[in-house]
Structure prediction request, 232 residues.
Amino acid sequence: MGKLLFGLPETPVVPVEGEEIGYSLGRIFCVGRNYAAHAAEMGIEADREAPFYFTKAAVNAVLTGAVVPYPPGTENFHYEMELAVAIGAPVFRATREAAAASVFGYCCALDMTRRDLQIRERQKQRPWDVGKDLENGTVLAPLTRATEWGRPEKQRIWLEVNGETRQDASVEEMIWSVEDIICHLSGFYHLRPGDLILTGTPAGVGAVQTGDRILGGIDGLPPVELTLAAAE
Ligand code: MN
Prediction:
C-alpha cells in the first residue's frame, strides 16, 4: 500500500505527571450513574444490579487547559467531574487482584454532555451517542501513577464554574469501586494499556455557557480545566 488518501486528527497523548512520558489513548469507557445522589438528580434510582457503560471516541478528547467552542446542537451543555482510571496492563475476566494490578494511574476528567440530547434519546429508547460522544467532549488532566497517588479512598472530588463550587463529594461515594468496574468491564472486553475508564460523576451537574471556566479536582491529582468559547 502506498500513500494514504487523507490524514486523520491525532488522538491526544495524556502526559504523566512529573515524567517525560506520555500515555497513548486507546478507548474511553464511561460508567453511568455511579453515585446515588447524581442518579437521583437525574430522576433515576441507582441500583446495584450491575454497572453499565457508554463509550466516547478518544479522538474527541482534549487535554486540560483547552478552550473549545460551545458545541452545536444543544441548549443544555453540562459538565460532569469524574475520576478516570488508566489501564496499564492487559486484563480479561479479571479477578480482584488482577483488576487492582492492571491500573496504571488516575487522572481528573470532564465528561461533557449535551444533556438535552442525552435525555431526549434516552426517552425515545435510542442510543445516547449524540448526547455524550461529542467533539472536545472528554477533557483530561495529566495522569498520576497509582504507585504515587494510591487508590480511591476518601479523596474529595469537586468542580467549580467561574470560581463557584458546583460539585463537592468524596470518591468513597462511588457505588462501584474501581476493582468492581474492571472485574465487570473485563468480562466484555480485553482491557489493555490505553484504555481509560471514567468512573461516573457525583451530584451537582449543571449547564455551562460561552465564557465559562470549568475547573475540577480530586485530592492529590492535577486539576482539569476547560474554557468555553463562542459557538462556531
Ligand atoms: Mn459521566
